[in-house]
Amino acid sequence: MMKLIATHAFSWAHRGVEVEQFVEGQSIETDDADLISVALAEGWAKDPSAKAKNGATKNKEA
Predict the structure, then answer these.
(1) Distances (CA, A) of 50 to 3, 6, 10, 11, 28
(2) The three-state (H, E, C) secondary structure of the chain, written as one string
(3) What is the average pLDDT value for the chain, to the nearest integer?
(4) Edge-to-edge order in the sheet of strand 27-30
(5) What is the Cα–Cα distance from 49 to 62, expressed in whole angstroms?
(6) Are the C-beta atoms of residues 25 and 59 closer than 8 Å to each other?
(7) How do residues 49-62 score in pLDDT, each as one tens digit?
(8) How far apart are CA 30 and CA 62, in angstroms?
(9) Rounded Cα–Cα distance for residues 2 and 45 (Å)
(10) I need a labelling partner for 54 at 20 to 30 A (CA). Which of 13, 18, 42, 48 fits?
(11) What is the pLDDT of residue 62?
């Protein structure tokens, strides 16, 4: 299970049929590999555990 934070409002069709809408700032917990890869690649969501370039976590101020 991976946790993401929506950076933009977007919709996702799980398995191509089950549409779910996400709002900016929403926490998303999913194991849907397609959702994770597309949302991160398109910038629709971010991984709150990912490290920022300066080594600080993105959700903390450096």
Answers:
(1) 11, 14, 21, 23, 15
(2) CEEEEECCCEEEEECCCEEEEECCCCEEEECCHHHHHHHHHHCCEECCCCECCCCCECCCCC
(3) 88
(4) 27-30, 2-6, 45-46
(5) 15
(6) no
(7) 887 555 555 555 54
(8) 28
(9) 12
(10) 42
(11) 47
Query: Does 29 score more than 60 pLDDT?
Result: yes
Residues whose CB is less than 8 angstroms from the CB of residue 53 and which lie 6 or more positions away in sequence, other chains included: none
Q: How far is CA 2 from the centre of its chain?
A: 9
| Residue with tokens 């779910």, as numbered in its chain | 20
Contacts of 43 (CB under 8 A, 6+ apart): 7, 8
